[in-house]
Amino acid sequence: MKIRTFSRGGVHPDECKLTAEQATVVADLPNQAVFPLSQHIGAPAKPLVKKGDKVKVGTMIAEAGGYVSAPVYSSVSGTVWKVDSAIDATGYLKPAIIINVEGDEWEESIDRTDTLETVGAHPELTPEEIVARVQRAGVTGMGGAGFPTHVKLCPPPTAKAECVILNGVECEPYITSDYRLMMEHAAEIVEGLRLLMKAAKVDKGYIGIEDNKPQAIALLSELTMADDHIEVVALAKKYPQGGEKQLVDAVIRRQVPAPPAIPVHVGAIVQNVGTAYAVYQAVMKNKPLFERYTTVTGKQIAHPGNFLVRMGTPFGQLIEKCGGLPEGSHKVLAGGLMMGKAVVSLDVPVCKGTNSITVLSGDDARRKAVQPCIRCGKCVDACPMGLEPYLLATLSANGLYERAEQECIVSCISCGSCQFTCPSHRPILDNILLGKAKVMEIIKSRIKK
Amino acid sequence: MNYMMMAVMVLGGVALVAAVVLYTVSRKFAVEEDPRIGRVAACLPGANCGGCGYAGCAALAEALVKGADAGSLDGLQCPVGGAGVMAQIAAELGMEAVASEPMVAVVRCGGTCELRPRTTQYDGLQTCAAVHATCSGETACGYGCLGCGDCSTSCQFGGLRINPETGLPEVDETLCTGCGSCVKACPRHIIELRKRGPKNRRVYVGCMNRDKGAAARKACTAACIGCGKCEKVCKFEAITISGNLSYIDYNKCRLCTKCVAECPTGAIMKVNFPVKQKEAEV
Asked: In this structure, are residues B159 and B179 in contact, taking their beta carbons and an 8 Å threshold?
């Protein structure tokens, strides 16, 4: 049988999964933890603490700023130093709560035992109760984008969910945090999936995993063998399979229409395996989202590894733990090679969506000289959304936004396959992103009118 | 011979029919354009820069004629042509010219390479819009000039250029027409149109940083820290502080330059003032 993958476009970057076989290590507590109030898509959280307040691990320090928003919990115990601003992965100073760490005292309500709680043993958990607990715990998508999970679980009335697809693809080079999580907490992930299925009121669940992770496929298949409702789907390795729309295409062979349609319009709710684990912990262990699995990696990093990190820990501390930045100039990415964002300071803290810290060195860190477009069409072949990247880039660069809108620039998922594949190293994605932002702005102002 | 006659007659016939049709159509569906529009458009500079807020010179001419019919030319201005062109147009339309003060672009950032240390390197797309969307730029200031020259590219009159030594744009007052295209091009909104002022003298705050004082100062030694000293020293209530940033209202400012001397970071700039002997010695 032919192994499944998404139908259109895609590229094959070098895997570089340096840390795949390294067991996760619990990272040290930081001296000072920084919690940006905007770690998710949607309205920023509103601070609940003020200077001098004492907090414990798991204390809510900021409440959700609206429905599409999520609360922020302290990952450390200590004293609030200030409610001010701090640099985050966007490269700008953003409102944040800064806490000086003292000891490690947890809220008593959190269940810190390892016993596995199954969904079957808790019939009192109604779908509404699960969604409420997920919302209260501040769970957001753990794959990087950070969309509040409770919103995804309550689809708009125009759509009906039919299945939940867990994303264990991890198609980005370098990153191994999801793989380690699947290897170390497979049972919890499966229970998390069952909770998500119950919350979304569906009876079919899939776990999509690329075939470069045979051990994870075997482990999860074994755990779900007896359950007819859950299916582990092995997928052929191809970037950007971890994109929601690509995953839906690969797993259930349905194509998501152009925006504003989302996967749930074709019946699928896609969640990261990390999110499933966070949901399990939030619902069963009453543990809000304040720590996550993060990979710290890079070819020149002396001891790359996978860490269980308390959020708010600065990048610099984790890199130091891995042997520090080697000599020379580097690019430190929040995320992986393809979609990671270069940070401007090592003080940037680990947030809900930080799945990896990738350090690029030498030639990898530098852009290559831009050459003229040779009309080879590689970018068109590589685009997983069936767009014409060269055209969108040119239109954006020349400010022809109306035409760019007609050419569906908002369908771009910013995967960067076009720029990766371009033999002339043209800044295709940079231009498209600018144009996309502008077109979104135009569309928004039109809706307002 | 017969063939030739035939051809001439057929073509001639077609031509005749077409001529009749075209003549009737052009008569029947003729668009009457106010002849004044053409005359007004002839007075305008024809740069089609859009500085007036209209799509081009023809569109402004149309708006001017409409305005004249409605009885007022208020708000209709050709910033490039200035008072001279407006007086000419007003005469053409039999109206009184609305007096306007000539404007000039002012760069509200003083963060030169020296005063604003570079903390990172950016090697992506070299336009200000791209840098602005990516990060705070090569310095820690999230408000200041990015130095890629989107403003100078947008200027049709060659009135702006980036000085490679300071990394900041410089306005050539003789070439700047105050059309405002650079104001729209700058993603950080650091360029402002201000009155040219008497003898071209101007006082303005050369900073847009709205961070708290300490953070702003850390990013750039010439940053406005919102201390409020200028607000206190100003006798004309021209200075207001909001969001950790000072702003000088050019309609109220009397160019006494007390604020310039008071500013602890040197963020307030004065241009075209004669250099005093004492200052020159220093």
From this structure: no
Asked if B50 is an interface residue toward chain A (Cβ–Cβ < 8 A), one would say no
Residue A144: left (phi > 0), alpha (psi -120 to 50), or beta? left
pLDDT tens digits along A259-306: 888 999 999 999 999 999 999 999 999 999 999 999 999 999 999 999
Mean pLDDT (whole number) for A338-365:
91
Q: Decide if B135 and A427 are in contact by the 8 Å CB cutoff.
A: no
Q: How far apart are CA A61 and CA A80, in angstroms?
A: 9
Q: What is the complex's ipTM, to 2 decimals?
A: 0.85
Is it the case that residue A327 has pLDDT exceeding 90? no
**Which of A139, A429, A136, A94 is CA-nearest to residue A276?**
A139
Nearest to B211 among A90, A93, A341 (CB): A93
pLDDT by residue (tens digit) across B45-100?
888 888 888 888 888 998 888 888 887 777 788 888 877 888 888 888 888 777 67
Do A248 and A270 touch, CB atoms closer than 8 A? yes
- Contact across the interface for B133 and A431, Cβ inside 8 Å: no
Supply the pLDDT for residue A53: 93
CB atoms within 10 A of CB A61: 22
Q: Could you tell me if B241 lies within 8 Å of chain A, comparing CB atoms? A: no
User: Which residues in chain A have Cβ-Cβ distances shorter than 8 Å to B136?
Assistant: 87, 91-93, 344
pLDDT category at B204 given cuts 50, 70, 90 is very high
- Window 311-330 of A, Cβ < 8 Å to B: 329
A91 vs B contacts (CB less than 8 Å): 134-136, 142
How many Cβ contacts (< 8 angstroms) between chains A and B? 48
Cis peptide before A260, with omega less than 30 degrees from 0?
Answer: yes
Residues of B in contact with A93 (CB under 8 A): 136, 142, 211, 215
Average pLDDT in chain A: 92
Give which of A129, A200, A126 is closest to A159, Cα–Cα: A200
